[in-house]
Predict the structure.
Amino acid sequence: MRKAHVPGNEPHENRGPLHPGALQANLTTGQRLASLDFFRGLIMMLLMLESSGIYEHFVSGTEGSFLHGIAIQFTHHPWHGLHFWDLIQPGFMFIAGTAMAFSIARQDSRGRTRRQESLHALKRSGWLFFWGVLDYAVRGDHLSFELWDVLTQLSFTMLVAFFIYRWKTGYQLLLSGMLLVLTEVLYRYSHFPGFDQPFTDQHNFGNYVDWLLMHKVNPGGWVAINCIPTAAHTIWGAVAGKWLLSGSGQKRALRNIVLLAAAVLALGYALDGWGVTPIIKRIATTSFTLVSGGYCLAALAFFVAWIDVRQHHRGLFPFVVVSRNSIFIYLFFEIVVSRWLADYFNVIVRGILAPTGLPVAVILVAASVAIFLFEWGLCYWLYRKKIFFRL
């Protein structure tokens, strides 16, 4: 991981609606795609709020009320079904693909060779894998080797998306479909004793692979080979980025993105509704990958149309601040906050507010808000110092 001042980090100016080819031109003027920064920043802000524990308080505090139905949307679905929170990791992996498209375009404009770009991609994936393993490396008083972190998943999906990036779009989409078919075949037609039930928790092919790789099965049902089907998310993100950079006009690019979103959403919900393949986030079934990818594509299209085409930039700054150091803040709240800082903040806030007689629930929420503000303040300090950590 390195830190550097990234050109083009100045605030966006309101220059009016974009004309065809303007996104490509932006690469040479040092500008960034504002919607991309916002999308990534939004995902990281939601993850920061989770790391503060505020969703747990929301869920427990609303039990028995009509708000509980909203609160549980910020938790993962137990198995067959879909909650809003199940879309966050797909969004993380999808937007990484879109950002990669812009990164490759910038590297091309600066005259970097394919070999240099390939070495950079390999190095980046190596660091992602390292930090992903390190994130789960300490369990209590012992070391642990686990491959369930989103960064280890992303290290694989980014490489796949990178090495097929120069392919024609049709071939890229075909490969993403083949990865989904491969997932279906592996789950349905593998018959290992004890792991021969395709869509049953703790007894499926993904659990079997985890047992081979790590000699353990995740009690929550997560599996390492989710990286195979979810490579489609990163590929679709890269394809969307290519469309936005194609120079053929934002209307055509947005039309393509919306059509792909509609197609994969319809197919994913049909597979689930017809009883072919259930939507299960924890093992990234084909139907889940299609549906979640469709929502990611639709969200990108909306953000590009609203922010970059219609030039609605007001209120983006808090998200941009977080977006510029997304990997850093992810590692910070995963390793530092969750293992130490959250407890430290809770003790401090309880000690200050308990004598006031405030309800315990209010004090817990106040502690979570303090944690979140500290995380955002750290990102803001790095932004003001022009320190941007990149892989």
In short: The chain has a mean pLDDT of 90. The first strand starts at residue 2 and ends at 4. Strands lie at 2-4, 138-139, 142-143, 388-390. The chain has one domain: 2-390.
